[in-house]
Amino acid sequence: QVQLVESGGRLVQAGGSLRLSCAASGRTFSSYKMAWFRQVPGKERDFTAAIWSGGSTSYADSVKGRFTISRDNAKNTVYLQMNSLKPEDTAVYYCAARGPFSALGPSGYDSWGQGTQVTVSS
User: Fold this and answer.
1) Measured distance CA(66)–CA(118) in Å, rounded
2) Which of 23, 42, 77, 98 is the most buried (most CB within 10 A)?
3) Are 93 and 48 in contact (CB under 8 A)?
4) 81-101: per-residue pLDDT in tens?
5) Percent of the chain with pLDDT over 70
6) What tens digit of pLDDT does each residue of 64-82 get?
7) Which long-range contacts (CB under 8 A, 24 or more apart) does 89-92 make?
C-alpha cells in the first residue's frame, strides 16, 4: 500500500497551464504504475494519463497533446503538466497507484489520493 497526496490544483483561465503533483510514501514507488484520473460532479471518474515504472505513458484522447505525465522516482512524486487548458478540463483530479503484486487487472489501481480541484474559467 502507498499513501498518495495530490497538490497544485487551482483556478486558471482557459489556455493557461497548471502542474499537478502527487507525492507518494514508501520505498517501492519506482516499481508502481502511476496514473491520473479526473471526475466531474455527477459523472464517473475518467482515466486521464498513466505512466509505467519503465517510463512508458498513456493518455486519454481528450488530453493527448496537451497533458504530460512524468515521474521523479528520487522524489517519490508523479506530475501532470497541463497545457492549453479548456473549461472542459474542470474536475477533481485524483492520483492513483498500482503495485507490482496487485491482484487487480492491468487497469486496476490499489491506492488513491484525496483529489485536488482544478477549475478552468472561460
Assistant:
1) 15
2) 98
3) yes
4) 999 999 999 999 999 999 988
5) 100
6) 999 999 999 999 999 999 9
7) 89/38, 89/63, 89/118, 89/120, 90/40, 90/118, 90/119, 90/120, 91/38, 91/39, 91/40, 91/118, 92/9, 92/38, 92/39, 92/40, 92/116, 92/117, 92/118
